[in-house]
Specification:
CATH class of one domain: Alpha Beta
Structural class: alpha+beta
Number of helices: 23
CATH superfamily of one domain: Periplasmic binding protein-like II
Distance between the termini: 78 Å
CATH topology of one domain: D-Maltodextrin-Binding Protein, domain 2
Strand content: 5-15%
Oligomer: single chain
């Protein structure tokens, strides 16, 4: 019996040792077949990093874990290619579910409220950073990496290489989320139409300045008017594209920094301070004190109302009529159909779809007929403000997940963003999270076929694009209010002012309930006393701030454009 036991033990040991060797064999096959030469690391360093994963995963071999993310290209690649590879290399089986963005937030909320471990890790937007910091349901990754998760934290992770960690760091200085994918919303335009000599001459004759990338909303409006109804290549085209259906996706259209583009809130990178781009004001201790102008906020101030009115005007006057009844997903493919001259609010997540051969927006040589550029700003905008939005889907570990499962999930999270893999993933998904990937020669070579995306991400302008910040204390509760309020304006049920008055009041109801409940302690809301716009504007100016600004009587400022090629050259200098 003892001999049999020894023999069984020996077999098990051999099997375990063999599986460890098999893990590295699988890693080498993965490097040969999938990564190939698309890595910022040398082959020796790739193998060194993979060996670390093989060794670190040994205590968790045979474990089944579940993670979840929204359904976009980067995560499809992770779920279909990287999760199976990770299992072969480490012995940890990963079920990487792909569901809608709203469903991800719903599952996250349910786990936070119930304490039931639904998923072992979430890729959720960094827009929830204020929620994670205040509710303390997510693990501080800073503390995790230094303590319980130290033995499963990749020594080659190189946090300084990530370009989005300022978005996932809370006011307490801790990192709560690890960026996995990023995309921005930028200005998109038909480069070929803008460089057409007749279009240029006709525009100059009508408006008195050059057709080019609009610097401000006045120029964008002129260009939208110029192209709408114009015959281009034998068909009538439109000067603008957007969407207006009262649907949850309408909320993203505005929470994703539309108000900041108009000039709402205060100066500050990555977010306005003390008033952010949602119009929510915080005190010196980061406690939200109000959303309405009456409490020093800016959600219903002149800049915010102007932003909504311009959205409505342009949607009605310059976009295809069908756009008013479209959702985000339905409107996204429209510019690639070749009948739109420009779009002020265009997510770069659509880049891959825009590059498909055979579409009317692609040249025969594989280069695009379009470009992307920094977004124009509204009349209330001042230098030093953020100018647009970046979506940063980020790995988040909740405290309700048992330590061993969190460790296994953390290994997978680091695997899919590792330097060994990130360059290949970025070429597949057209999404950047690492500076080393951005700087790689392979993207210099590919840049002419990506329509300005690489140039933008390598430029200093990138810093003005950021996700929702920490002024928002409960993103899931507050975000859902936006599409309902602005949907009323889009449908004509309310004016822009009425819609924003309603929105700020509803936001303050949530802030008030959180204050009354006291569950967020000394970093929860503490609503300020009410005064009029003049009072709060004077208070802001006295303290060297901007918001809420007074109404500008002439909101049509002098239009300005810039030549796209000259703009790119200025970045490169």
């Amino acid at each position: 019996m003892r001999k049999q036991l020894l023999t069984t033990t020996a077999v098990m040991l051999l099997a375990f040792t063999g599986s460890a060797f098999a893990g590295m064999d699988e890693a080498k096959q993965f490097l040969d077949s999938e990564v190939k030469d698309l890595s910022t690391l040398s082959r020796a360093d790739q193998e060194k990093e993979m060996q670390w994963f093989v060794d670190a995963a040994k205590p968790f071999a045979g474990m089944d874990i579940k993670v979840v993310s929204e359904t976009i290209t980067a995560h499809e690649y992770e779920s279909k290619v990287l999760a199976p590879a990770f299992e072969k290399i480490t012995g940890i089986k990963v079920t990487h579910d792909l569901i809608g963005e709203g469903d991800v937030v719903e599952k996250l909320q349910t786990q936070m409220q119930s304490g039931e471990n639904i998923y072992d890790a979430y890729v959720n937007d960094s827009d929830l950073i204020g929620t994670h910091w205040r509710y303390q349901q997510a693990r501080s990754l800073t503390k995790w990496m230094a303590n319980e998760g130290k033995d499963v934290t990749n020594p080659m992770l190189d946090l300084k290489d990530f370009i989005g960690t300022s978005f996932t760091t809370a006011p307490d200085g801790d990192l709560y989320q690890l960026p996995d994918q990023q995309f921005a919303n930028l200005y998109w335009f038909r480069y070929d139409w803008f460089n057409d000599e007749k279009n240029k001459a006709d525009f100059k004759a009508k408006y008195g300045y050059d057709l080019g990338v609009p610097v401000n909303w006045s120029a964008y409006e002129d260009i939208a008017e110029f192209f709408t109804g114009r015959d281009v290549g034998g068909k009538k085209v439109f000067g603008h594209m957007d969407y207006g259906k009262k649907d949850p996706s309408l909320g993203w259209r505005f929470t994703d920094a539309w108000l900041s583009m108009a000039g709402n809130g205060d100066k500050g990178i990555p977010n306005g301070n003390p008033v952010d781009e949602w119009g929510i004001k915080v005190d010196a201790n980061s406690r939200p004190v109000g959303s309405c102008v009456a409490r020093g906020g800016d959600t219903n101030g002149p800049a915010a109302v102007y932003s909504i009115q311009k959205y409505l005007d342009w949607l009605n006057a310059y976009a295809p009529p069908a756009a008013q009844g479209m959702t985000f997903g339905e409107a996204g493919p429209v510019p690639a159909q070749g009948e739109v001259a420009q779009q002020i609010f265009w997510y770069t997540v659509f880049t891959a779809d825009m590059l498909k051969a055979g579409t009317s927006v692609m040249n025969d040589d594989g280069t695009p007929k379009w470009r992307m550029a920094p977004s124009p700003h509204g009349v209330y905008w001042k230098d030093g403000m953020k100018l647009g939005y970046q979506d940063v889907g980020s790995w988040t570990l909740l405290k309700s997940t048992p330590d061993d499962r969190a460790k296994a999930a953390w290994l997978y999270a680091q695997f899919v963003v590792s330097k060994t893999i990130d360059l290949k993933k970025s070429h597949t998904a057209i999404s950047f999270v690492r500076q080393s990937t951005l700087d790689d020669k392979s993207f210099t070579d590919r840049a002419p076929k990506l329509g300005g995306l690489v140039e933008f991400y390598r430029s200093p302008a990138r810093l003005q694009w950021s996700p929702t910040g920490t002024n928002v204390p409960d993103y899931p509760k507050l975000a859902q209010l936006w599409w309902q309020a602005i949907g009323d304006a889009s449908s004509g049920a309310k004016t822009a002012q009425e819609a924003m008055d309603s929105l700020c009041a509803e936001q303050e109801k949530v802030l008030g309930r959180l204050e009354k409940a006291g569950i967020l302690g000394d970093i929860g809301p503490k609503l300020a006393e009410e005064h009029d716009l003049a009072y709060w504007n004077a208070d802001a100016v006295k303290n060297g701030n901007l918001a809420p600004q007074l109404k500008i009587e002439n909101e049509k400022e002098k239009p300005m454009t810039v030549n796209y090629d000259e703009l790119v050259k200025s970045w490169q200098k």
